[in-house]
Design a protein that fits this description.
The complex is a heterodimer of chains A (340) and B (245). Chain A is mainly α. Helices cover 72% and strands 4% of the residues of chain A. Chain A contains 14 helices and 4 strands. Chain B has 245 residues and is α/β, with parallel strands linked by helices. Classes of the chains: A mainly alpha (340), B alpha/beta (245).
Chain lengths: 340, 245
């Protein structure tokens, strides 16, 4: 194919591409501000690790939620039920493998933990599929009904969980190898928090890889920006959405296991309690942005732990305050997606 | 006589409570470029969106290669070989030019899977795309975005292109590149249905013309006939070619 087209003389140079790293700076700035306030370096290290661990678990749970909103404008207030379900499934798996979980061997502990995570992800993924088909699909494009019906779905889901596991709280003790703390000088860092940070980083890296290196990831990123155009290019965004919903539900199930182990107790209400935090995180991050969700979750984790230590009364609304401050700075969240 | 590639027959489209198309009849032949002209609000964009399945016809028939497609979904219609460039260009601003193009090439999993000759041809038509290959598409100028939107539609061979006002806001040199691109596509038997307000641009490309008003086709014929008849232009479009030159 030969073209006789003239080279255009009117091509202006583009502005240099500068990645927006300003929101990333919020994390070290927040940590540095907290350092003198906490009084001692060791306390600061402990609180910072606790905050990062909490943030990572919230990220695991919220990442699917932000993509679900980004792709189809679906406000799923029922996301919390997958957290609860994942945590209760973990109690059952751990119950059957208590010998392994209570063993002194790290290997045996991991063998107990891995099936708990896999079972939780598999079951919540399947339940997520049913949830999307039965509850969300009939109310596409109807935000008010979505809020009502997904909240209703969560209430029903929690009641069903009570039918299977009872209404009482169930202890979910950490496997033996993850109990206790590691000492860095005078600073004590709980072993499980390190595990949570590692799992969170792994999930983030995996999501980043899928979103930036695969065509499915490209489709998800494009769909979050303009789903009508994705369909006009010949891709079935409905199927993509179902896939993302299932993955998001499975991640919430994994997050439920992590959260249950973090609290070491599982209650039927735990999902609805975390729900508020999830929405704060995805609003702070920018609806539909996984990177924003990651930073938002870490900010929420750090702020919760610092204020919980420094001013417990403020801790009750510290995350709302954080959200207000971020939105005053960037009204569409840290990383706005497309035209959102 | 060969059946038209695309045929609309008595198409009515409602958007909510509004009745936009009132029985549109339109044919696009194989390898032909048909220009859809008309004033703002005449129903041109709605016609393209109805063909693409983005809005469904409430009655009437839309046939592509003789097959009724009016009840099909947008992805199904696109997979039949119809590409659509909307008026707002529909670019993915947060993705790079490269990623936008990869997405448009449905059969390619990686950029290396795209036919390199075709890519070179596109770069020849729209050099800016090569230059800004790794840049986020949102940073491109309006003209460059338009080039990318058209390039995306032609990155793989398609039978029919539906293009909504491609010359809008473009510099004359880029419009000239578009004309070259569309002529080469026509030579390759690609049919094009072009919505256009720029009559000079349309006149250089069109084989056939259809003029819309009030959600109906009020005139069909050859572009040569319309371009050569000032009275007809005045009557149908409220303009004359002489006034445009």
């Amino acid at each position: 194919m030969n073209s006789s087209a003239a080279t255009s003389p009117v091509l202006d140079a583009l502005p240099e591409v500068k990645p927006d790293r300003l929101p990333l700076l919020l994390l070290p700035v927040l940590a540095l501000v907290a350092l003198p306030l906490t009084g001692s370096f060791s306390t600061w290290v402990t609180l910072t690790f606790a905050g990062l661990a909490m943030g990572m678990i919230i990220f695991i749970i919220a990442s699917g939620l932000t993509l679900v909103f980004g792709l189809m404008d679906v406000l799923n207030f029922g996301h919390g039920v997958f957290i609860t379900l994942g945590a209760f499934l973990a109690t059952s798996v751990f119950g059957r493998m208590s010998g392994w979980a209570e063993s002194d061997s790290l290997y045996r502990n991991l063998v107990a933990m891995l099936p708990a995570m896999l079972v939780a992800m598999a079951v919540t993924g399947v339940v997520g599929f049913a949830f999307e088909r039965l509850i969300i699909r009939p109310v596409y494009g109807q935000p008010l009904k979505q809020i009502m019906i997904t909240m209703g779905g969560m209430i029903v889901g929690v009641e069903l969980i009570k039918v299977f596991w009872g209404a009482q709280a169930i202890p979910l003790p950490l496997p033996t190898a993850f109990r206790g703390s590691l000492l860095f000088g005078e600073a004590a860092v709980e072993k499980y928090r390190l595990v949570a940070v590692l799992v969170g980083l792994t999930v983030f890296a995996a999501m980043h890889w899928v979103l930036s290196r695969t065509k499915v990831g490209l489709l998800i990123r494009a769909g979050v920006q303009d789903r009508e155009m994705v369909e006009s290019l010949g891709y079935r965004i409905g199927r993509l959405f179902v896939g993302v919903f299932i993955a998001g539900s499975a991640l919430a199930g994994l997050g439920g296991v992590m959260w249950g182990l973090y609290q070491q107790i599982v209650t039927p209400e735990m999902g609805s309690q975390v729900n508020v935090l999830l929405f704060i995180v995805i609003i702070i991050g920018g609806m539909g942005s996984v990177g924003g969700c990651f930073i938002g979750a870490l900010l929420v984790g750090l702020v919760s732990n610092y204020t919980g230590f420094l001013a417990p009364k403020v801790a009750l609304f510290s995350n709302i305050l954080l959200m207000v401050i971020v939105l005053l700075w960037r009204p569409r969240g840290l990383y706005s997606v497309g035209n959102r | 006589m060969k059946a038209p590639l695309l045929e609309l027959e008595g198409v009515h489209t409602h958007i909510g409570a509004y009745h936009i198309l009132h029985g549109v009849d339109l044919k696009v032949g194989h390898g032909e470029l048909t220009v859809l002209l008309g004033r703002n609000g005449a129903g041109k964009t709605t016609t393209l969106r109805t063909i693409m399945g983005l809005w469904h016809a409430s009655s009437g028939g839309v046939r592509f290669e003789g097959e009724d497609i009016h009840a099909r979904t947008t992805p199904e219609i696109a997979r039949l070989g119809i590409a659509y460039v909307p008026e707002n260009m529909g670019i993915f601003a947060d993705l790079t030019v490269r990623e936008n193009m990869l997405l448009a090439a449905r059969s390619a999993k990686r950029i290396d899977d795209i036919d390199s000759k075709r890519l070179d041809w596109i770069f020849g038509l729209f050099p800016a795309l090569r230059r800004f290959w790794q840049h986020p598409a949102g940073l491109l100028s309006g003209g460059q975005k338009q080039m990318m939107a058209v390039a995306r539609a032609i990155i793989e061979p398609r039978q029919l292109l539906l293009i909504d006002e491609p010359s809008k806001g473009l510099a004359p040199a880029i419009i000239q590149n578009m004309i070259v691109a569309f002529r080469e596509l026509k030579q390759k038997e690609t049919s094009i249905l072009l919505v256009e307000q720029n009559f000079n641009f349309a006149r250089q490309l069109g084989d056939q013309v259809a003029v819309m008003d009030g959600g109906r086709i009020v005139h069909t014929g050859s572009m040569a006939e319309l371009a050569g008849d000032e009275g007809l232009q005045q009557r149908l479009l409220g303009l004359s070619l002489a006034a445009h030159q």
